[in-house]
Structure formats: structure tokens, C-alpha cells
Amino acid sequence: MIDKITAILKQHDPDFGRALQGAEERIMRRPDHGDYSIYRPDPDYAAVELPLKAAAVLIPVVDRPEGASILLTKRADHLKNHSGQVSFPGGRCDPEDQTAQETALRETYEEVGIAPDYVRIIGAMEDYETVTGYTVTPVVGIVRPGFSLSRHEGEVADIFEVPLDYILNEKNHALQSREWKGRMRYYYVYENHRHNIWGATAAMLVRFAKLVNEAQK
């Protein structure tokens, strides 16, 4: 499966065009995918004004002998944005970051302690816009076993892995809804025995699963 995913991303992101894009070229471009278009359809939605805030996350596909998995984090409860939610390692682009790939690798090392030497970047998916005004580049990397974890206690409450087969199985792509500010909102949820995955992270995982599954048909 690791070889298949590598080949799929090579075709989807030729020459690492998305993984190597810089922050300045992204903040003035509205992504086609995002929170409102995927799980909050709203004809009266007033889009966040440009420029957006550039960010990048790593989708860490861990190459386990017993089967590949996706590594995720649970954000600390005291954080201002998305507190307590499950997320990928990642964050806002720093001025010294030349590319989305650099941001994803740096943030992964800072948040969970996985050194860049353990990660082989294979490409990126399309940018994703959040309701908080970020344009997020989901960078995909293959993580080889043997790494050690070091949790950033100020940002990360937990680190865990979910089997890749579970993520790819479309039966687990649950679409749920709730009323928010007088309107029904829809969002994806992966129900997990440790932490439920929902919102932007779940939406990006569903997109990743569809990309992999459709390429194999």
C-alpha cells in the first residue's frame, strides 16, 4: 500500500508543485476546498477576506510492518483555536519557512518530536480553507518506524495512530449534523475508540481516502 500511495501522490502532485509552494503565493488564492464548502454549506456565507493565513500540516503515513497507520494528535484544551480537537501535526507558516513542506516538517518535529530524517515527503493535496481564515496545505509523508515521540505539552495533549485501512474504508466516513447559530451544519466524523476525528481533519482524511481509493479503481 505504501508504494501505491507514493505512486498516487507522484501523479497527483507532480514535481512536488503543492508541497513546495510558498506562503505568499497561497494567501491571496482562495482554495476550492474548505470548511464551508464541505461541511457547512451556506448560501449566505461571507468568505473571509484575503489575504488568508498560510499553514501546513503533515499527513504522516507510518509504515508499520503490521500495516500502515496515520499518526494524529489531540490538541491541548487551553489553545485558542480548535482546542481539544484531533488534528495533524502542523501549524502556521513561519517567515523563515520557504515552502509548505518545510512548515509541515518543522511543526511535526516541534509538536511530536519526529525528526525530518524519518519522513519521506511524497507530495501534497490541494489547499484547504478553514473557518478561522487559514489556507492549509496537507503535505503527505511516509514515516519509517524507529522514531521516538516527544510531545509538546503546551500544544499537544495526546498522540495516537489510526490504521490506514480504517481511514480508507468509506463506511467509516460518517456525515453528521448539528444546529449551530440557528442553522444545520454538516461535517465528517471518524468515530474512534480513543478520540473522535471530526471537522477539518476528518474532511482532509476523507479527501485523502477518496484520492487513494479512486486511483485504485
Summarize the structure.
This protein has a single domain, classed as Alpha-Beta Complex (Nucleoside Triphosphate Pyrophosphohydrolase). It contains six helices and twelve strands.
Tally the helices: 6
- Largest beta sheet, briefly? 9 strands, mixed
Estimate the helix proportion, in percent.
25-40%
Provide the domain count. 1
> Radius of gyration over alpha carbons?
16 Å
Structural class: alpha+beta
**Share in β-strands:** 25-35%
What is the CATH class name?
A: Alpha Beta
Distance between the termini: 14 Å
CATH architecture title: Alpha-Beta Complex
- Please identify which CATH superfamily we are dealing with: Nucleoside Triphosphate Pyrophosphohydrolase
Q: Report mean pLDDT, rounded to a whole number.
A: 89
CATH fold group: Nucleoside Triphosphate Pyrophosphohydrolase
**Apparent shape:** globular
Order of helices and strands: HHEHEEEEHEEEEHEEEH
Strands, count: 12
Low-confidence stretches: none
Q: How would you portray this structure in words?
A:
- The protein has 217 residues and is an alpha+beta fold.
- It has a single domain (2-164), classed as Nucleoside Triphosphate Pyrophosphohydrolase.
- The protein contains 6 helices and 12 strands.
- Strands 1, 2, 3, 4, 5, 6, 7, 8 and 9 form a 9-stranded mixed β-sheet that branches.
- The longest helix is centred in the C-terminal third of the chain and has 17 residues, at 199-215.
- The radius of gyration is 16 Å and the shape is globular.
- The two termini are 14 Å apart.
- The mean pLDDT is 89.
